[in-house]
Amino acid sequence: MFQLIPGTKYHGGQEVDAMFVVWVIFILLFVMSAVLLTGRGSFLIAGYNTSSPEEKEKYNSQKLCRTMGVSMLLILFATAGLFFIPLDSVYRTPYFIFYFIFLIADIGIALYISNTRCYKAGYENKKDIRKSKKETLFVAAGIFIVMFPVLLLVSITLYRASLPPVYTIGGDTLKISSFYGETIPLDGIKTITLEETMPFGLSKKNGSDLGSILKGRFDADGNTAHVYIDASRPPFILIETEEGLHIINDQSREKTEALYTQLKSLIK
Questions:
Q1: Where are the domains positioned within the chain?
Q2: Which carries the bigger pLDDT value, residue 25 or residue 49?
Q3: What is the pLDDT of residue 235?
Q4: Mind listing the pLDDT tens digit for each residue in 44-86?
Q5: Which one, 12, 67, 98, 121, has least CB within 10 Å?
Q6: Known InterPro entries for this protein (predicted)?
Q7: Which sign does the torsion angle of CA 104, 107, 113, 119 carry?
Q8: Which long-range contacts (CB under 8 A, 24 or more apart) does 109-114 make?
């Protein structure tokens, strides 16, 4: 749950938490890849560590460990790229989609190599090797076919949800073009104020809170608010209408203040 503390400015606490998670993942990947690249740590390899002694005997464990170590190292490098992108806008970048596609490809290739190139030199059962290759290809293809559309759909959804809203004042309405967007009749606005800090806490009911970007329906101290804000970029425009409270802002202080001035001049 995301919450703005009454009377205070937002300082990106959720982004700090997310960055902490990325750091933990990065460190774990670093440690695991370092261990595996030494040719040790086979207990870290899923599938191999639960295989029977007879099955393990077929594999060159050092080569298998180094193969998985290289795979982990590549994922480590890809994860490092996340440190160069603000987490509240990572969903808007092509790197977000690339990262997950890369993960699928990396895992698929690692599975293929580990099941076809990591046998011991003395293991000569070519029939089993061909069977293993075929099974691995089917597994890798299955993972790709199932996961790619899901990740693509999730990526597109998150990308759309992270885009800043576009405000259009035309005729007698304020149109908010965005995920969870809506149109507000100007003659239905009761009050409008410009606030430097949020005067109450917000918790999501039906919407999205990607980093500092909040959109949708939020609980505002017991009341439902329609929210379209970047919480890290005050001020905020509070609009009270017949349908309830609306909270909006634009991508800069100047744009938000200009939007407020324009709306204020149109309200009778």
A1: 13-162, 166-266
A2: 25
A3: 93
A4: 887 777 888 887 888 888 888 898 889 888 888 888 877 766 5
A5: 121
A6: UCP037672 (IPR017259)
A7: negative
A8: 109/71, 109/140, 110/67, 110/68, 110/70, 110/71, 111/136, 111/139, 111/140, 112/136, 112/137, 112/140, 113/67, 114/45, 114/48, 114/64, 114/67, 114/68
- Read off the pTM: 0.52
Report in angstroms the alpha-carbon separations of 250 from 41, 71, 125, 172, 243: 51, 42, 66, 20, 22
- Give residue 265's region: left, alpha or beta (phi > 0; psi -120 to 50): alpha
Using alpha carbons only, what angle is made at residue 56 by residues 53 and 58, rounded to the nearest 5 degrees?
120
pLDDT reading at 128 higher than 70: no
Query: Which residue is associated with the tokens 């597994």?
Result: 139
Q: Using an 8 Å Cβ cutoff, are 246 and 174 in contact?
A: no
Q: If you write DSSP's letter for every residue of 31-53 in order, what string do you get? A: HHHHHHHTT--GGGSTTTTTS-H
Question: Which helix (H) or strand (E) segment is 168 a member of?
Answer: strand 166-170
- pLDDT, position 9: 36
Reduce the DSSP state of residue 107 to 3 states and report it: helix
CA dihedral 107, 112, 114, 119 (to 10 degrees): 180
Amino acid 119 reads: Y
Spatial CA neighbour of 170 closest among 268, 53, 54, 262: 262
Enter the tokens of residue 32.
């695991």
User: If pLDDT is split at 50, 70 and 90, which confidence band does 8 have?
Assistant: very low
